[in-house]
Specification:
The protein is mainly alpha-helical and 292 residues long. It contains 16 helices and no strands. The relative contact order is 0.17.
């Protein structure tokens, strides 16, 4: 029981903090210490779900980045998000990351509504994942802190009309998916490139066996928008129960002493480390760095 008490020590610390004023500190603890693996996986799902919007997938399909530089595009997205979460958006490093993100996005005609939806996935996909698979549930303070963190990031990205409350933004997220998740060939192409990226992380001989397990992570609305096969129920149950078991076992582990942000990982695109000036579409790097 002593180990279990230690496991919940950070939760007790977080519950003493304010979700509005201390949201950067709370998110730092959640992403770096309490749920690093879970939040990374949930943000992968968030990323994939944005490709169910034809206006988003068509843009990505045209640039070719997700077909020819899939791993770099994945790593770059993870790095920019992790930089902001690790150092906070008000730190020098966080501000530099936000400038980089805004400069990249500024080259593309992205609607404010699509920006809003993508932003909402960074709030609600980790919360949904936690409700299904977390070794403990987020407390109300943590959920509100995640909302306030990304609300502030959205403002610094110049996104307009961000809903003012957790509940209103959750409703926007739900309604946007119901109205805009429709099949298109660009959804399928970008989705297949992303699925192939995930499979490339496993030994070649195992990829066909793992592929249905990857599809089992997505809901029916997402699979339909991708034109992807719906995996057998037995596979869905296996994946669901396996992740729930992982969460149960994790509950009995000692708390993490060292942070485990995405930026701390050895990345396939940057085996020797990276600089923020390395981040961005390959064809755009010279222009991005010239403007800095």
């Amino acid at each position: 029981m002593f180990g279990l008490n230690l496991r919940y020590h950070r939760l007790q610390q977080i519950q003493q903090l304010d979700p509005v004023n201390d949201h950067c500190q709370i998110c730092h603890l959640l992403v770096g210490y309490e749920f690093p693996w879970d939040i990374t996986r949930s943000l992968e799902l968030a990323m994939v779900k944005t490709y169910c919007i034809p206006s988003i997938s068509q843009l990505l399909d045209r640039t070719g980045e997700f077909h020819h530089h899939t791993q770099k595009r994945y790593d770059d997205t993870g790095l920019l998000v992790a930089e902001i979460l690790k150092w906070s958006y008000d730190s020098e490093r966080g501000q530099e990351s936000l400038r980089r993100m805004n400069a990249i996005h500024g080259h593309y005609p992205i609607s404010n509504e699509d920006f809003l939806y993508v932003l909402s996935t960074f709030i609600y996909e980790p919360i949904r994942w936690n409700e299904r698979f977390g070794w403990r549930l987020f407390c109300e303070t943590e959920k509100l802190a995640i909302f306030h963190f990304w609300q502030k990031v959205g403002e610094k990205m110049h996104i307009k009309n961000i809903p003012s409350t957790y509940e209103k933004f959750a409703q926007y997220n739900h309604d946007y998916e119901q109205q805009n998740f429709v099949y298109s060939d660009s959804n399928r192409r970008v989705g297949e490139s992303t699925i192939n990226l995930f499979l490339s992380w496993f030994p070649y001989f195992s990829r066909q066996m793992i592929k249905p397990c990857v599809y089992a992570m997505f809901d029916d609305l997402t699979l339909t928008a991708f034109g992807s096969p719906h995996p057998p129920g037995v596979v869905c149950n296996l994946v669901e129960n396996g992740l729930k078991l992982r969460g149960y076992v994790s509950r009995w582990l000692l708390p993490r002493k060292k942070p485990d942000f995405f930026t701390d990982s050895k990345l396939r695109s940057y085996p020797n480390g990276y600089k923020l000036s390395d981040i961005g579409p390959t064809k755009m790097l010279k222009k991005l760095n010239r403007n800095n």
